[in-house]
């Protein structure tokens, strides 16, 4: 479960403002990108995650999809499901038919899928790198680095579409040599969600074992 959440876990306040002395060109692009996603009531994305570690000769690919609404999200990937309603987190493992329930306690050194679009607003410096192409589409490449030097993440590289300011992919680099790349394969804005979308209904998982850590 940690391997899955390592990519998509990052806790940053939506209400924070960007600090001074940042790259203004990068800041303008990030503000446009962030405004695009925050204007949506909800969205769904399918993605491919690649974990690489050159020293350990590791390369692993996983596919999944995620539905996000504000601080809430529902992530499905590799036989596991993580649901966060902002207060409670359910982590379900299909192979064990087991769900672990815990309080939502964001770790400031982790990356949360519901907040990748506001990551830059607190605790990170950002710099415009270059214009590039991704799958034939022009993108702006921006790098973010944490102000906290104890953070195990030392760099995040984000590619933002020049045409519509959507995030096409991002990479997270960690001090242990792990490099996580997330590529968005399909994006659907304003998908319908309701009270059941971000809750775990154990009646739909016959015989599920519940481990409540709250």
From TrEMBL:
Pfam families recorded: LolA
Keywords attached to this entry: Lipoprotein, Signal
Keyword Cell membrane included in the entry's annotation: no
Protein name: Outer membrane lipoprotein carrier protein LolA
Organism: Hymenobacter telluris
CDD domains: LolA
The organism's place on the tree of life at top rank: Bacteria
Signal peptide positions on this chain: 1-20
PANTHER family membership: OUTER-MEMBRANE LIPOPROTEIN CARRIER PROTEIN
């Amino acid at each position: 479960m940690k391997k899955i959440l390592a990519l998509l876990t990052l806790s940053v306040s939506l209400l924070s403002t960007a600090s001074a002395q940042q790259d203004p060109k990068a800041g303008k692009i990030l503000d446009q990108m962030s405004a695009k996603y925050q204007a949506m009531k909800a969205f769904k994305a399918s993605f491919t995650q690649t974990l690489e570690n050159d020293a350990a000769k590791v390369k692993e690919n996983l596919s999944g999809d995620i539905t996000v609404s504000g601080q809430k999200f529902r992530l499905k990937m590799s036989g596991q499901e993580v649901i966060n309603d902002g207060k409670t987190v359910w982590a379900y493992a299909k192979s064990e038919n087991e769900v672990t329930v815990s309080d939502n306690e964001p770790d400031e050194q982790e990356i949360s899928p519901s907040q990748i679009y506001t990551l830059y607003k607190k605790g990170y410096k950002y710099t415009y790198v270059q214009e590039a192409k991704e799958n034939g589409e022009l993108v702006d490449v921006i790098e973010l680095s944490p102000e906290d030097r104890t953070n195990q993440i030392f760099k995040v590289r984000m590619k933002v579409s020049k045409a519509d300011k959507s995030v096409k992919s991002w990479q997270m680099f960690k001090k242990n040599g792990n490099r996580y790349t997330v590529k968005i394969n399909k994006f659907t804005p304003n998908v319908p969600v309701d009270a059941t979308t971000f809750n775990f209904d154990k009646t739909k998982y016959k015989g599920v074992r519940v481990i409540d850590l709250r």
